[in-house]
Structure formats: structure tokens, C-alpha cells
Amino acid sequence: MPRQAGALSYASQGIGASGHIAGEQFRLLTNTNIVHVPYKGAAPALQDLRAGHVSMMFDVVPFALQHIQDAACAAWRSPAPQRLPVLPDIPTMGEVG
Known about the structure:
- It is a single chain.
- The chain is α/β, with parallel strands linked by helices.
- The chain has one domain: 3-Layer(aba) Sandwich (D-Maltodextrin-Binding Protein, domain 2), CATH 3.40.190.
- Helix content is 36%, strand content 12%.
- It is built from four helices and three strands.
- The chain has a three-stranded parallel beta sheet with strand order 2-1-3.
- Helix 1 links the parallel strand 1 and strand 2.
- The radius of gyration is 13 Å and the shape is globular.
């Protein structure tokens, strides 16, 4: 997968998927130079995230929860209005601004 050394990248479940839209929204709102790496589904995207081939992924909690609890992936923020009971230590985006 093409990626410049040191560049930030994010995996998505595919072009136009929710993770792609969330990543583009993040890129625009934060003015971050980040490369989109589309996959054919969430499973291969998460595998490459765990392997360190991409910097981040925007995904839904039920799919990523086990990987977060196993400390294979780190949850950064939640877009939910309140902290999620299954991830009480993860702040919401509203909490951090």
C-alpha cells in the first residue's frame, strides 16, 4: 500500500463507507494531512491497523471493542454524547473540544 514515510494514514472499510466519511470529516475539521487507505471491509482494515501499517481507523465500537480491550488497538475518542459504559476511560470528543 503506498504511503510516505512518517505520513499519517487511516484505514476505512472501503470508499464511501462510514469510516471513510468520518476520516474525511476529521481531516477537514482538524486540517490534518492524512492519507486514506481503503480496504474491502473492516476486518482487513483492522488487521493492518493492528500490524501498524496504518496510523488509525474510524470504526464502530462493537467491532473494535475486543481489540481495544486486548490493548491491540487504542481508542482515542468517542463521538458519543456521553462516555460509553463499555469504555468508561475513553473521553468523548465533546469533552476534549
